Amino acid sequence: MTTLAKTSIYYDFGNGRSLAKDVPATHPSGGGEISETITVPIKAGKEQSVKICVTATDSNGNESASTP
Fold first, then answer.
1. Can you tell me the distance from the alpha carbon of 50 to that of 24, in angstroms, rounded to the nearest whole number?
2. pTM of the model
């Protein structure tokens, strides 16, 4: 990729993903390493399984498949 615009972080409780955060690219060819904190809305005292996935989006708005 030579036109990376952002990386998106999603969470999914099993009924479809929700956007947690968009992280702007630091370099258009990618290859960087990001470390981000996200908030996942789980009710206090409740155990909940959650899947975290990420995608890459180029400057034309084309989003990659999500990675688990």
1. 24
2. 0.87
